[in-house]
Amino acid sequence: MPNQDVIYGFGMFDLAEAAVVVQVPDFGGRFWLYQLGDQRTDSFAEVGSIYGTLPGSYLVVGPDWRGDVPPGIANVFRCPTRYGYCLPRVFFTDSAADREPRCQPSTASWPIL
Fold it and tell me: At CA 74, angle to CA 109 and CA 99, rounded to 5?
């Protein structure tokens, strides 16, 4: 049975082709966690409220990436394998306020070619 008070996302990255920007919105005081994992499903970064991560843009790069970090990037996370993934999880309650779309911040990621 799925966890009914957590919203999940999932994204796969081919980091041989491009570095990827992962946007972390402001989730306020709620619990949230972005699991960044490699091809073997090992986590390679600590991103979440339990780690004190701030909202912002983060760059995920592959093992051979040698590019320039774009302006506005808060931190760079190096994946040890070509393929990686991001699994965001955000806690929500069953309150009327949490059911409002404006209370559900969007997560996003995009490649830097």
Answer: 50
pTM of the predicted protein model: 0.87
Tokens of 26: 């402001």
Whether the predicted pLDDT of 17 surpasses 90: no
Q: Are 51 and 74 in contact (CB under 8 A)?
A: no
Per-residue model confidence as pLDDT tens digits over 44-74: 999 999 999 999 999 999 999 999 999 999 9
Distances (CA, A) of 87 to 6, 11, 45, 106: 12, 7, 12, 14
Listed residue (20, 11, 24, 19) closest to 57, CA to CA: 24
d(CA 91, CA 101): 14
